[in-house]
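FAQ: What does the model actually see?

It sees only this:
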Amino acid sequence: MTQHDTKGLAVTRIAGALRSPVAFSVLAGVVIGALFLVGTGADPFAAYGAVLSGSIGADGIGSTLSTTTSVLGLALALAIPLRAGLINLGGDGQMVLGGMAAAVTGLYVPLPAPLAVALALLAGMAAGAGYAALAALCENRFGVPLLVSSLLLSYPASSLASYLARYPLKEPGSSLPQTRQLPDGVALPAFGSSTVTAGLLLVVLAAAAYWFTDKRTSIGYEIRMTGLNSRFAAYAGVERKGLTLRLMATSGALAGLVGAIGVLSFPYRFLDGALTAPGYTWTGLTAALLAGAAPLGTVLASFFFAMLQVGGLSMERTTEVPRELTQVLQAIVIVFLAARLSLPRRWFRRSRQQREAV
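And it is asked to produce this:
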C-alpha cells in the first residue's frame, strides 16, 4: 500500500467517524449549547474553556478521574444487560446495598485491614448481584418487565439503607445520618494526595473484562445476537431466562462494587444519600446509551460525561454560567442520538413501502 493510499484510508476513516451518530450528536450538542450561551450574553469560548481547564487541567483532573470511577462503574453495570436489549434501572438500589454491605463488613469483620477491604468489596458485589438477580426472577417467574421490577426494587433498597444509617448503625453523637468511620487502614489506597483511589483500577479492569468477553468469547456473541434479534438468538439455542439472570447478576455486582468503592474512599463511611445524590446511575445510563453499550465507547462516553460534570462546576465559578448547562448538553446529545438513529430506519421503511406500492 502506497503512502497516498494510506492517507486516503485515514481520511476515509476520519470522515466515517465524523458521520457517525455519536460524533454528530456530540457536535450538535456543543453547537446548540454555544447558541444558548450566546443567547444569554455569555462567551461560549470562555465557558467551554472553563469546562476543559476545570476538568482536565492540573487542578481538576483528580476530581474528573474520581467521578469517572463512579460513572464508568455504573455505565458498565448498565451497558452489560443493555447489550442484550435488557434495561436495568435499579442501579441506585444495587449500589446503595453494595455500599451498606461494604460498610457493615468493614466495621464488624475482625480481620486485618487488607483482608477486610477485599472482603468488603466482595460483600458489596454480592449484595448488588443478589438484589439485581431478584429483579430478573420477577421477570422470569412472574412476568414483571425487567425495566419495571428493577426500578421499583430500588426504592425499598434505598429506604432500608437509609434506615440502617439513621438508626441501628448511626454514629453515636452525630447529627448526620451516617455510620461510624471505618477502622484505620480499611480503605482503598489513594494515588498520592489526590482523591483518586485504586477503585479506578478496579473499574478499568472491569471494562477490560467486558471488552474481552464481548469481542473474544461465545457468551459475548450470544449477548450481542440477543440484543440485535432476540427471536433469532432463541432459535439458535440461547436460553433467554438464564441469560437474563446471569447478566442482571453481573450488572448488580458492578453496581454494588461502585457502592463499596464509594464507602471505602473518603469519608470512609456510609453517608445516607451520598452515593445517589450525584446521579451517577442516570449519568452512567446516558453514557451507555450514547455508546450503544459498546465496551470502548462506554469508557470514552463515561469520561466525557465526567468531564462535563466536573467542568460544569468550574464553569459556574469562573464565568457565572450555571452548571445546569452541562446537564442540558447531555440531554441534547441523547435527543440528537435518538433522532439520528431512528431516521435511517424510517427512511428504509418508507423506501420499502414505496417499492412495494409500485
